[in-house]
């Protein structure tokens, strides 16, 4: 854990700087109330009413997030395999080919079903 | 901690074990040093980018504040600090304030494991010019850059406004899509270096073996940018996507989304997002330098000077910064050259080219490496197997292509949508979609009489019936540009 101590120190400094900036920004700027200024910005027209929590947005984004998880897990398996590749030999290669092909089936399915199309 | 470790002097950078055992004041100096370096580099970068883009566009760029306008970014920062800090009515206050903090703090963290140089003498203590190193350093970088995505999403969501929400979602989808390609491009590097620690990857790129050719001994290139060029290519494309920079700056497409996720932010909160974006740019450039461009080591002709004296002491910091600046120049160059992609083109590139391409490249690298290092397998068998697998995949793709049902060309789709399909020139109705569009290559404009093929847009056809005005307007607009 010794190697993580400097990271914590850097994180503390960075977060401290960010918090300081926010506080300083709130204190240093002027405060002039204007009702229109607090409306959400929509290029000057009356803002569209927005549901609390963002309302609904396209299901495509959820799909992208789920695909991301699948491939991220694949990456997590690939990293230790790559680091220890030379000592695994042919066995490691064959196993990884099988694994990548298996994930590739899912990828081909998503592609085929139009999951990668944006219109 | 200081009493026990303070006396033990860390000497070598061999292996990851030596890191993190510095005396506390050395750690403090390094932390402040990296923080300062990133701040100054960011201020410099903004100036650098504006000046270089200005040159590319035959302008002068900022040249008033300070010598050559160097203090312009600082002046802008002060100006932002003196602006009103607005929290819009519909915003979720806590998350709205939290988002820039997450974004900025996470941006600084990745630099903790970037090696800036070899072991140097810092106030009498010999210590590597690197804050710390982990056995999983590159994974750590990916992890903290992912935390930065939370900043974007939360900023977009908490603003309680339409454009920021769309921009935030786009940013998130974009960053996670390109993070996969980025992560996959590292695999070949780890495979060659046999490590995920940044200092060991730099070490692995120190020398690249020798080649006997016509009686001469030639040094092989050792940078992974050369050895693993496809990986480098994939990394470069995905790093631009990952940092939301032109030509992939869709979350900030002013024409459609105003400012993207930070539309509602003002004052220093906006400055924090700006800072985070530029630090991220530096981070991915530093990562490119470390993983692909030989890290802090002097580039080729310089590495021979004085038997490698330029690779010792404080010199490497210079090479490192020069390489990072070179990559940043590349960023600026892209911005000055390429137009922005459309969102579907962008996702198409990421999901359908970069990801399968990098997976295939990983398999090729692994196979070649097994063939060159394995003793149990002779090469002929392996080559035959590889050919067999490739042929099998080709066959599979042909079968898949044959089985796939062709989508019938329905008459409902307009000319613009199916333009690429038909070889014969198709007539199309320029007003079919309700607004006029120019014909695509291979399309001919229908005669006004024939446009009744699709009666859905009466407004368009009535306009076409009087062919005098719309063409005159369009030609009048086109003429000055040509």
Your description of this structure?
Chain A is mainly alpha-helical and 119 residues long. Chain A has a domain at 56-119: Up-down Bundle (Methane Monooxygenase Hydroxylase, Chain G, domain 1), CATH 1.20.58. Chain A is built from 3 helices and no strands. Chain A has helices at residues 5-28, 60-83, 85-112. The longest helix of chain A is centred in the C-terminal third of the chain and has 28 residues, at 85-112. The two termini of chain A are 48 Å apart. Chain B has one domain (2-210, 217-366). Chain B has helices spanning 2-5, 24-56, 72-81, 93-109, 137-158, 162-193, 198-204, 224-227, 229-242, 254-257, 267-292, 300-303, 315-337, 343-373, 379-403, 458-465, 469-481, and strands spanning 117-122, 125-129, 210-213, 216-219, 426-428, 443-445. The longest helix of chain B has 33 residues, at 24-56. The interface between A and B is large, with 71 and 95 residues.
Approximate shape of chain B? globular
In the predicted model, the low-confidence regions of chain A spanning at least 5 consecutive residues are none
As a percent range, the share of helical residues of chain B equals 55-70%
According to DSSP, the number of beta strands of chain A is 0
Tell me the number of structural domains of chain B. Answer: 1
Low-confidence region ranges of chain B: 1-14, 412-422, 457-482
**Main pleated-sheet profile of chain B:** 2 strands, antiparallel
CATH architecture of the domain at 56-119 in chain A: Up-down Bundle
The proportion of residues in beta strands of chain B is 5-15%
Please list the strands of the largest sheet of chain B in the order they lie side by side. Answer: 1-2
Instruction: Compute the separation of the termini of chain B in Å.
Output: 72 Å
Quote the CATH topology of the domain at 56-119 in chain A.
Methane Monooxygenase Hydroxylase, Chain G, domain 1
């Amino acid at each position: 854990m010794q190697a993580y101590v400097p990271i914590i120190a850097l994180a503390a400094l960075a977060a401290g700087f960010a918090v300081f900036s926010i506080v300083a920004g709130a204190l240093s700027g002027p405060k002039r109330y204007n009702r229109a200024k607090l409306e959400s910005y929509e290029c000057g027209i009356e803002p569209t009413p927005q549901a609390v929590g963002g309302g609904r947005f396209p299901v495509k984004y959820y799909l992208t997030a789920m695909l991301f998880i699948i491939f991220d897990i694949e990456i997590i398996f690939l990293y230790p395999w790559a680091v220890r590749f030379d000592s695994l030999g042919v066995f490691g290669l064959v196993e990884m080919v099988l694994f990548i092909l298996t994930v590739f089936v899912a990828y081909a399915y998503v592609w085929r079903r139009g999951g990668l199309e944006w219109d | 901690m200081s009493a026990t470790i303070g006396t033990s002097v860390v000497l070598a950078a061999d292996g990851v074990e030596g890191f993190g055992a510095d005396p506390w004041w050395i750690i403090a100096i390094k932390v402040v040093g990296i923080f300062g370096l990133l701040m100054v580099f960011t201020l410099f970068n903004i100036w650098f980018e504006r000046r270089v883009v200005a040159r590319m566009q035959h302008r002068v760029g900022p040249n008033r504040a300070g010598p050559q306008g160097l203090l312009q970014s600082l002046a802008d920062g002060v100006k932002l600090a003196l602006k009103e800090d607005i929290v819009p009515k519909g915003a979720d206050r806590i998350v709205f304030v939290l988002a820039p903090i997450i974004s900025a703090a996470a941006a600084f963290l990745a630099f903790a494991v970037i090696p800036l140089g070899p072991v140097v003498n810092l106030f009498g203590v010999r210590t590597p010019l690197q804050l710390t190193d982990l056995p999983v350093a590159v994974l750590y970088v990916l992890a903290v850059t992912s935390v930065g995505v939370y900043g974007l999403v939360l900023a977009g969501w908490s603003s309680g406004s339409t454009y920021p929400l769309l921009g935030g979602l786009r940013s998130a989808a974009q960053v996670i899509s390109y993070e996969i390609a980025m992560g996959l491009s590292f695999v070949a590097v780890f495979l060659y270096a046999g490590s995920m620690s940044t200092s060991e990857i730099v070490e692995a790129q120190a020398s690249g073996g020798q080649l006997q050719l016509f009686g001469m001994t030639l040094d092989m290139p050792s940078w992974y940018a050369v050895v693993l060029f496809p990986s480098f290519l994939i990394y470069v494309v995905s790093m631009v996507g990952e940092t939301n920079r032109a030509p992939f700056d869709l979350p900030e497409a002013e024409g459609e989304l105003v400012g993207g996720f930070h539309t509602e932010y003002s004052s220093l909160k906006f400055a924090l997002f700006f800072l985070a974006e530029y630090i991220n740019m530096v981070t991915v450039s530093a990562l490119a330098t470390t993983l692909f461009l030989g890290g802090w080591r002097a580039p080729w002709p310089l590495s021979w000077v004085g038997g490698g004296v330029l690779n010792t002491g404080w010199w490497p910091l210079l090479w490192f910064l020069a390489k990072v600046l070179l990559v940043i120049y590349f960023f600026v160059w892209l911005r000055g050259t390429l137009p922005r992609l459309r969102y579907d083109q962008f996702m198409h590139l990421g999901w359908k080219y970069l990801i399968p391409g990098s997976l295939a490249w990983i398999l090729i690298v692994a196979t070649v490496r097994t063939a060159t290092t394995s003793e149990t397998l002779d090469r002929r068998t392996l080559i035959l197997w590889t050919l067999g697998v490739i042929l099998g995949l080709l066959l599979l793709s042909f079968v898949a292509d044959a089985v796939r049902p062709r989508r019938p060309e329905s008459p409902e789709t307009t000319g613009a949508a199916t333009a690429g399909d038909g070889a014969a020139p198709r007539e199309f109705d320029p007003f079919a979609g309700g607004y006029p569009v120019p014909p695509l290559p291979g399309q001919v404009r229908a005669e006004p009489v024939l446009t009744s093929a699709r009666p859905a847009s009466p407004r368009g056809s009535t306009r076409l019936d009087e062919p005098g005005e719309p063409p005159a307007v369009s030609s009048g607009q086109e003429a000055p540009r040509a």
